[in-house]
What we know:
This protein has 258 residues and is an all-alpha fold. It contains 11 helices and no strands.
Amino acid sequence: xxxxxxxxxxIMLGALAINFVLNLVSYYSSYTQAAALMQSLSSGxxxxxxxLLMVCLTTLLEWLGxxxxxxxxxxxxxxxxxxxxxxxxxxHTAYGVPYPYLGSSLYNSFANxxxxxxxxxxxxxxxxVAHSYNEQRMVRANFLPVxxxxxxxxxxxxxxxxxxxxxxxxVFLPMVNILIxxxxxxxxxxxxxxxxxxxxxxxxxxxxxxxxGNFVTLLFTLALLAFxxxxxxxxxxxxxxxxxxxxxxxxxxDHKDV
Length: 258
């Protein structure tokens, strides 16, 4: 038991320090003010580099268990988004809209499959790599919720929250998706999604519905999802290897105690 004392003390002291800081933030309403500032920066016709920064910040905050700027808004709640929608209705096409690279539209359509951090891609990678009964059971239990963008069970049960093994893909892969999608829009491979999408629409279908059923957009989105799964696979393998090693160490410690 002595081997566990120091880690437990470090975790408890760290938790107390974090709780103290969060209480200060709550007392001075700093989080509310920061959230309002982030939302103002991420909505509307902001520079593209700033949109990418807000996406990165959103996913990082979600990895920490805190909602980010793109979690506070829909894709059609700004003046620029309405201008895009009116253009598409007037011209019967979403090609050539005045604001083709809106952050909220790109994020919701191409960087949020299954919820924050492209949870659906992570779950599919887990289904491919994992072999144990418990791991496959976790995949089956979370498939439908994640498909409809409800990923709380996966974020906590895998876990993804505060897990350093998943911080790189969870934070930066959505930004890569947006860069690829923006390039596809730039070369007119796909139109900008401008139409309203019902809440709960499966992540890979959001861009398809938002582009009024553009079939090329659907194929592009599925290819993007396949790319995300491919990127996640080595991280899942690493995570499973680390978990297996931890179980071996725990078994040895238990044997010593006996």
